[in-house]
Design goal:
The protein has about 450 residues and is an alpha/beta fold. About 35% of the residues lie in helices and about 25% in strands. It contains 14 helices and 23 strands. Strands 17, 18, 19, 20, 21, 22 and 23 form a 7-stranded antiparallel sheet that branches. β21 and β22 form a beta hairpin. α8 packs across α11.
C-alpha cells in the first residue's frame, strides 16, 4: 500500500494503487468518519473518471450517499465540505505530480484534513488485513450538486480593482481553468488555459524551474507586472516578478501581511512552515503578527491554524491557508489577495521586485535533496556537527531539525515518501551560504554515502 502517505493517498495509477483500492477507500470512508453522505470531486486527469467510478461505487455499496461535484479544484471541495456541512469529502487528484499519477485527498467535517495519523492509516490497515466489503442492505444514492457559482461568488468578494495591473497567467492545463477567466477577466495574458489531464505543455508543478519557463517568457513579452502560475489542482500558486524572476513562495506570506495586518487591521497568529525564511517573521512582526512555525503539509498546517485560530499562514511549497477559508488553502484565493496588494503597491510606485527586495534579506539555498538510507542518523550528524562548534539561538525538533544561529540557519527533514533528506539553508551572505552547504554535502557524502538528487 505504498500510495498511503502522511497527507493523502497518491502514486502512479495502476502501479502504486488501482481501482480496487479506490473502491475500498470509498467503502470504508463512511464508517471511518461517521458520514451518511460523502462529497466527491475530481480533477481532469485521464485516470480520474475510472477512479471516480470505483470510489463512488464503494461509498454507495457501504450504504452512504454521494454528492458529486464533477470537475473541481481541490479548494472547491474544501469549500463545499465546510460550507454545506459534510462530514466527509474526497477530491480525486494527484495535485502537482505528472500525468501518470493520481490520488485521493480526504477531508472530514469543517474541511479538516485526514492524514495517515488520523484516518488514512486505519483504512490502509483494513485493506491490508483483507477486511471484507459487504454490500449494505440498502444502497446509497448518488446526486449531483453544482456549487461553481457559490464558490465563485465567495472568491469574488475578495477581488479588488486590478485595472492598473498587467498580469500574466499560466494555468498549467489544470483545474484553475475552471475559474481564472471568470475571476480575472480577459485583460490578462493567459497560456495553457485549456484543461488537459495529460499536461502536454509542462508538468503541473511550479516549483520545478523548467515548468515556469513559459510563464517567464510570457511576462517579459507582455511587459507584465507579475506572473501567476497554479499547480494541477489549484490548491497552490506561485509568482514571478516583472522581470520573470521566480519568487520564493514563503516570501509571499510576508506580502499577505499587507492585506490582513495592514489593510484589514487584524492582529494575531501567522503560521509558517519550518522551511520558511527568517525574513518572513522579521517583516510581519512589526505589523502585528505573532509568528508560529509548524510542520510541512496541509495535514498539519490546516489543523494547526484552526487550533490556534490564526489569521493566515503559508508554506514554501506555495500553499496559503486562511481563517476566512475555513483554515484551508486555496491557490485562487491566495492569488486574489496577493494581487490586491500588488495593485495597491503599484499605485504607490512600488514594483513587485521592489516589494520583494524589502522582504528578502538573506541568501537562500532552496531545498536540496540528498539520497540517503539512514535518514535519522544523517539528520542527527548534521545537527551535532554544527552545534558542536556554534551556539544556536533556537532549535526546533519537529519535522526534522531547524537550528538557528545569529547569521544563518538550516532545516534538515526526511521525505515522507522517498529515501531523501531535504536540506535548506539561509545565511546573511553568499559566501557563508556556500560554506555551510559545502560542509553539509561533504559530511553526508563521507559518512553516509549520500548524493545530491
Amino acid at each position: 500500500m505504498g500510495a498511503f502517505h502522511a497527507y493523502d493517498i497518491r502514486g502512479i495509477y495502476n502501479v502504486d494503487f488501482d481501482r480496487e483500492t479506490a473502491y475500498k477507500v470509498g467503502y470504508f470512508l463512511p464508517e471511518l468518519l461517521g458520514a451518511g453522505e460523502v462529497l466527491v470531486g475530481r480533477d481532469c486527469r485521464v485516470s480520474s473518471p475510472e477512479i471516480h467510478e470505483y470510489l463512488v461505487n464503494g461509498i454507495l455499496d457501504a450504504g452512504a450517499d454521494v454528492c458529486d461535484l464533477g470537475l473541481s479544484t481541490t479548494p472547491m471541495v474544501y469549500f463545499g465540505t465546510a460550507r454545506y456541512g459534510f462530514k466527509a469529502s474526497v477530491q480525486i487528484t494527484a495535485s502537482h505530480n505528472p500525468a501518470e499519477y493520481n490520488g485521493l485527498k480526504v477531508s472530514m467535517e469543517n474541511a479538516l484534513p485526514v492524514g495517515l495519523d488520523n484516518g488514512l492509516g486505519q483504512i490502509r490497515d483494513w485493506i491490508e488485513q483483507g477486511r471484507p466489503c459487504v454490500k449494505a442492505a440498502v444502497r446509497g444514492r448518488l446526486r449531483q450538486k453544482d456549487i461553481h457559482r457559490d464558490y465563485l461568488d465567495f472568491l469574488l468578494e475578495y477581488k479588488e480593482d486590478y485595472s492598473g495591473l498587467k498580469i500574466a497567467f499560466d494555468l498549467s492545463n489544470g483545474m484553475s481553468v475552471l475559474y481564472a477567466k471568470e475571476i480575472f477577466g480577459s485583460a490578462p495574458a493567459y497560456i495553457f488555459d485549456e484543461m488537459d489531464g495529460r499536461f502536454p505543455n509542462h508538468e503541473p508543478n511550479p516549483l520545478v524551474p523548467g515548468n515556469v519557463e513559459a510563464l517567464r517568457k510570457l511576462v517579459t513579452e507582455t511587459s507584465a507586472d507579475i506572473g501567476v502560475i497554479y499547480d494541477g489542482d489549484a490548491d497552490r500558486v506561485m509568482f514571478t516578478d516583472g522581470q520573470g524572476r521566480f519568487i520564493s513562495p514563503d516570501l509571499m506570506i510576508a506580502v499577505l501581511g499587507h492585506y490582513f495586518l495592514e489593510k484589514r487591521g487584524e492582529r494575531g497568529i501567522v503560521l509558517q512552515d519550518i522551511r520558511s525564511s527568517k525574513a518572513v517573521g522579521e517583516y510581519l512582526v512589526p505589523m502585528g503578527a505573532e509568528m508560529v512555525t509548524w510542520k510541512v503539509g496541509r495535514a498539519f498546517a490546516a489543523r494547526k491554524l484552526r487550533e490556534l485560530d490564526g489569521v493566515f499562514g503559508g508554506e514554501l511549497a506555495g500553499h496559503y491557508y486562511f481563517r476566512d477559508f475555513f483554515y484551508s488553502d486555496s491557490g485562487l484565493l491566495a492569488s486574489i489577495l496577493i494581487l490586491n496588494v500588488i495593485a495597491d503597491m503599484k499605485k504607490k510606485g512600488v514594483s513587485v521586485s521592489g516589494l520583494i527586495s524589502r522582504i528578502a534579506k538573506y541568501r537562500n539555498s532552496g531545498e536540496i535533496n540528498f539520497r540517503v538510507e539512514d535518514k535519522k542518523g544523517a539528520m542527527d550528524a548534521v545537527r551535532d556537527y554544527f552545534t558542536s562548534s556554534e551556539t544556536p539561538e533556537a532549535t526546533m525538533d519537529f519535522d526534522g531539525y531547524r537550528v538557528e544561529f545569529p547569521s544563518w540557519w538550516f532545516n534538515i527533514r526526511p521525505s515522507n515518501t522517498e529515501p531523501y533528506l531535504r536540506f535548506i539553508c539561509e545565511a546573511v551572505s553568499d559566501e557563508l551560504l556556500s560554506e555551510k552547504v559545502s560542509a553539509v554535502t561533504a559530511l553526508l557524502s563521507s559518512r553516509f554515502g549520500a548524493v545530491r538528487a
